[in-house]
Amino acid sequence: xxxxxxxxxxxxxxxxxxxxxxxxxxxxxxxxxxxxxxxxxxxxxxxxxxxxxxxxxxxxxxxxxxxxxxxxxxxxxxxxxxxxxxxxxxxxxxxxxxxxxxxxxxxxxxxxxxxxxxxxxxxxxxxxxxxxxxxxxxxxxxxxxxxxxxxxxxxxxxxxxxxxxxxxxxxxxxxxxxxxxxxxxxxxxxxxxxxxxxxxxxxxxxxxxxxxxxxxxxxxxxxxxxxxxxxxxxxxxxxxxxxxxxxxxxxxxxxxxxxxxxxxxxxxxxxxxxxxxxxxxxxxxxxxxxxxxxxxxxxxxxxxxxxxxxxxxxxxxxxxxxxxxxxxxxxxxxxxxxxxxxxxxxxxxxxxxxxxxxxxxxxxxxxxxxxxxxxxxxxxxxxxxxxxxxxxxxxxxxxxxxxxxxxxxxxxxxxxxxxxxxxxxxxxxxxxxxxxxxxxxxxxxxxxxxxxxxxxxxxxxxxxxxxxxxxxxxxxxxxxxxxxxxxxxxxxxxxxxxxxxxxxxxxxxxxxxxxxxxxxxxxxxxxxxxxxxxxxxxxxxxxxxxxxxxxxxxxxxxxxxxxxxxxxxxxxxxxxxxxxxxxxxxxxxxxxxxxxxxxxxxxx
Length: 604
Ligand SMILES: Cc1cc2nc3c(=O)[nH]c(=O)nc-3n(C[C@H](O)[C@H](O)[C@H](O)COP(=O)(O)OP(=O)(O)OC[C@H]3O[C@@H](n4cnc5c(N)ncnc54)[C@H](O)[C@@H]3O)c2cc1C
Ligand SMILES: *[C@@H]1O[C@H](CO)[C@@H](O)[C@H](O)[C@H]1NC(C)=O
Ligand SMILES: *[C@@H]1O[C@H](CO)[C@@H](O)[C@H](O)[C@H]1NC(C)=O
Ligand SMILES: *[C@@H]1O[C@H](CO)[C@@H](O)[C@H](O)[C@H]1NC(C)=O
Ligand SMILES: *[C@@H]1O[C@H](CO)[C@@H](O)[C@H](O)[C@H]1NC(C)=O
Ligand SMILES: *[C@@H]1O[C@H](CO)[C@@H](O)[C@H](O)[C@H]1NC(C)=O
Description:
This protein is an alpha/beta fold. Residues 49-437 form the Amine oxidase domain.
């Protein structure tokens, strides 16, 4: 039957899971490594990209790396604070030798989730013996689909409302045999997921290291629009409400303005399947249960029976009651990944470093043997060191300030990078109605309408209650939580417009008074009073290319100039703002330019 074929196709697309090892589909391996084992290599920035690169290079025998870090810690945008009942604390081992993550709870002010497609991070977690925990279910979804602005829905109710809205308006078609609302919603969702996944592969091919390969002119034209326009144009209305939040919730921009490339980049078929499973797990398990009960007798005798069974075997993997939980978190904090790597690999990190303006001179005009000279201050003392190769993981948009001999090609690419602001605030307040109140006690909140477009800049659009997640504690009076605000436009705010900044861990006052003020206003609108602000971090975020630069091929031009001028440009500016992407980008560089082979993320 037609839908049987349909489900097989979904299965085929889904199982095209991406692992490492081979070269890029249409890439060519470059011969000579750009540096020797005896060379000194300078790495600017000890965030995830810099730490991971130094660690993998060490595994390959390149041990003379030095990391230059502006702040007093490794981890960059993976920043964890810890609180107990009386204030800040340090996690200690308990009697059994395990970290006590319950009485001293981790609050991630940056990276926090480990999604189902994050193979490179799962590999690191395993390699360094870190602990993960499955993120608890239940989300408080606020949106115009709910009863009023103080009422939330579950994720499943939210997606259902948004799809049924489309069905009513006629933008979403459902099969005639989908009689109940449940089946209408799942039917519409499944057929849109299938269509999306097929489209994704036809446009981007099989993506190897998370960054799509260079796209040809006809493909570029098909994605020369915003992600929202792309979904609309390709008749993917059933995914609109869902993806609007799945994309924007991470601070990756509003789907109404972000170029389609980035939507497709982030929402891989694997990630999308994971999100759908997560949102409908309980319902799917019920259906799975139903089909199991009927297995002995007449399964798949009616079209509807076949369809439901096929649906379930796709989403549940054939096993009843075993829908995979897809989002995990780190109870010891995300920063722990990078501090553990730096410690166990014995990386040479210089903290509190200020590289002087024009302080990096690659001496490109001289012969290729001339060293790279780096001038910097550390604890007020000026120092000069020489290296043979530079790896730069800071924001590329600001490289011009530090690198004296930036070439025209480099500058013309970097000057096209634009960024956003994602602010996180650690604060304490009494419970929030329909989210952390007594009758709900939910771990995470999203406010969907506040992810619609730039008129929503500065809204309180997401929130997390870590005590609930990591310690199973619900407090009826005061709850420490982490709130999120996002800005597409921020240039009019003097405290935000210089995006060459690293928010410091111990700085008590917010760097951006307007952001803090807006946060308190937003909470008050939701009837949250008695708010105590503990810390706020307005991160410069998601350095990316705008539509025109994508059409000119800049993301791929950047990759192809790697190694020229004694430099690798890595980190989020080179690819996409996630730990998954920056580590994959490193693996791609090592694979393509050094012929490295990996097994579970380790060099072999
Ligand atoms: C609130 C928030 C939530 C997030 N959630 C997730 C998530 O759930 N999943 C996910 O995958 N990702 C998430 N991210 C994104 C992820 O944290 C980043 O993509 C990742 O940290 C990027 O790594 P990086 O090394 O490229 O850059 P950064 O993490 O920004 O590190 C760069 C480092 O370089 C240093 N540096 C910069 N310039 C200089 C200079 N001139 N001299 C010396 N040092 C310099 C900085 O101090 C910093 O330590 C989140 C980020 C934030 C802010
Ligand atoms: C909280 O942690 C601090 C520092 O680790 C410690 O001094 C204090 O006693 C702790 N408070 C509680 C209630 O455990
Ligand atoms: C992780 O644990 C294994 C088994 O106990 C051990 O062999 C390995 O050295 C550990 N890895 C690190 C990085 O500590
Ligand atoms: C462009 O790339 C797509 C996707 O890889 C491919 O299907 C198509 O044939 C290519 N078109 C041209 C003109 O090369
Ligand atoms: C992309 O679309 C814009 C209009 O939205 C158009 O001006 C531009 O020429 C297009 N670029 C390409 C390469 O098709
Ligand atoms: C707000 O805090 C004050 C003083 O801590 C307390 O008396 C009052 O009951 C609190 N109000 C709420 C709504 O929790």
